[in-house]
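URGENT: need a sanity check before tomorrow's submission.

F., can you look over the Lysine biosynthesis protein LysW record below? I want to be sure the sequence and structure line up before it goes out.
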Amino acid sequence: MSVAACPECDAQVKIEPDTRVSEIVECGDCRSELEVTSLEPATLAQAPEVEEDWGE
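Structure tokens as predicted:
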């Protein structure tokens, strides 16, 4: 397991060994949704907002 800093609150977020790049994880402190952008070293970025397409 590795850890990375939350880009929102700088808390340490645990990255499980089976986590993949582009997976979404949640910060335990501020509850932000974060995207795993790299595993070596582990880095996180704010997850992109999901927009609804309303079936278009």
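My own read: The chain has a mean pLDDT of 92. The longest strand covers residues 33-39. If you see anything odd, call me.
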